[in-house]
Design brief:
Fascin, Actin-crosslinking, actin filament binding, alpha+beta, 1 helix, 104 residues, elongated, DUF7910 domain-containing protein, two-stranded antiparallel sheet, three-stranded antiparallel sheet
Length: 104
């Protein structure tokens, strides 16, 4: 099953954020925690929902429906993280400030 995350909103809000938790033994194994406190799980081959309750165990086994294998098509570098955190309007200013401070 290949799943691609796609944004379909017109703005950013806290309810649209999520955490990607990586397995300490295999960083390609991830669990995605939604802002509602539940984990994203595969319900069917073409449907995922954010309603898997964590039972307090770090279950990274293949039978866990909230476990996904994540591959990056490109390396995520610092500028991506800044743009993601500050947004496309504020990130260029932050990058300019970092560059100026770095040379002084």
């Amino acid at each position: 099953m290949d799943i691609v995350a796609v944004e379909n909103s017109t703005g950013i809000s806290l309810s649209e954020t999520f955490q990607i938790l990586r397995s300490p033994l295999d960083p390609t194994r991830v669990r995605i925690k939604a802002s509602n406190g539940f984990f994203v799980q595969a319900k069917t081959a073409d449907r995922v929902t954010a309603d898997y309750k964590d039972v307090g165990e770090e279950d990274w086994g293949d039978e866990n429906p909230s476990l996904f294998i994540m591959t990056n098509s490109v390396d995520l570098r610092g500028e991506f993280q800044i743009t993601n955190g500050y947004g496309s309007l504020h990130a260029p200013k932050v990058m300019q400030e970092i560059r100026v401070e770095g040379y002084n």
